[in-house]
């Protein structure tokens, strides 16, 4: 497995988690303080697009790492739970890095 597969997943896990926290703050502002409705709409749409990209990269990593369906489902769902993606990403990285280190290095021409 290429290191880029893990790197793509890690970047999108962090970006998705941060955007979800920003979206939660916007929702508190919108419904708790009746302000920022336009910002909440924009952040929710950006988060939705980034979450779809996260799903693609997480599925790609899971299929290459040959995860069972339950583990793959947990990693995919962790992007919907505030703060969960940070913790799940650390576990995924610890599990997948040995697979990346064992992969043969190829030199392209």
UniProtKB/TrEMBL annotation:
The record ties this protein, via PROSITE patterns, to: PROKAR_LIPOPROTEIN
- Subcellular location as annotated: Cell membrane
Q: Transmembrane residues, as ranges?
A: 12-33, 39-57, 69-88
**Membrane topology of this protein:** Multi-pass membrane protein
Among InterPro entries, the record links this protein to: DUF3817_TM
Primary subcellular site in the record, as a coarse category: membrane
Listed under GO cellular component are: plasma membrane
Q: Does the keyword Transmembrane apply?
A: yes
Where in the numbering of this chain does the DUF3817 domain appear?
Answer: 6-92
Superkingdom of the source species: Bacteria
Q: Which UniProt keywords apply?
A: Cell membrane, Membrane, Transmembrane, Transmembrane helix
Keyword Manganese assigned to the entry: answer is: no
Name of protein: Membrane protein
Q: Could you tell me which species this protein originates from?
A: Streptomyces katrae
